[in-house]
Amino acid sequence: MTVEPQTRTTDREDIAKRLLRSSAKASFDPLVEIDWDAPVDPDRYAIRPERISLYGTELWESLTEEQRKELSRQEIASVASIGIWFETILMQMLVRHAYDRDPTSNHVQYAYTEVADECRHSVMFAKLLGKLDAPYYRLDPVAHFLGKVFKTISNGPLTFSGALFVEEILDQLQREIMADEELEPLTRAVSRIHVVEEARHMRYAREEFARDWNKRGPVVQHYSRIMLSLVVYYSATRLINPAVYKRVGLDPREARKAARRNPHWIDTKTWAARKVVDTLDRAGAISGPGRYFWRKAGLLGRRGASAPTTAGPEAQRA
């Protein structure tokens, strides 16, 4: 299956040259740009309440306003922990991608530039955890092991489709956070830096995926669909670590079950993934048995439900 027009590529060296220029003009040092000494405001949400995994459930109604705001901070910390985990994987995959290529090319030099960006982002997310009084929410042993496997066996289409998936999910959530002046200033500042720099990373990944995918034969494409669906499933179903619920006095198992069944949370994940789902689906990367895992992860919407709007559940506050 060929990639449709919206995902056709430009010249590899030309786009890398432009991305390098953009990096030189708009890159940030989070240690300098963010006021890490400012206290976190306990009276503000870290993310819109409509995006919290338990929003609209009976457990949500049982929480006090203070508990809800604390849960928002812990859920952002959980997402940041996933971000650190995947960015560490991505950095290794990008170095492998560059290993066999000409370092004098713009393409490889931008890969190195992105690695430098991801290093800063991981430090930024780690400092965010400390400011939110949150632990590093470690993945369960199975997911952690699969991450090791994925970074080792990943091919070109898997590297860039996997990167695009995680980056697009975070980008959608963070664009919303940075634009909402009612939210905690620290999470808005972190989101702003990540959104600006990840826009380049997503362009690089989108182009490289499209370029590589069309060169692959049916066997490799089938393998890549299955592997990608597993990466997507384990990433999306672990965005919120069950341990966050314990921090607000809830039973982790009960809360996790409630979140998995929560239509608001499913709609939020569908909304956050809508752009990358469209890109990969049009390319033919979401089909066959792998599509089952995309749906099971809550990324293709609820059966029988209308597609969520770009406004998402927050429109209910209006």
Automatic annotation (TrEMBL):
UniProt-listed Pfam families: AurF
Q: Name one GO molecular function term.
A: oxidoreductase activity
Please, which domain of life does this record's source organism belong to?
Bacteria
Q: Kindly provide the name given to this protein in its UniProt entry.
A: Aminobenzoate oxygenase
What is the phylogenetic placement of the source species in the record?
Bacteria, Bacillati, Actinomycetota, Actinomycetes, Streptosporangiales
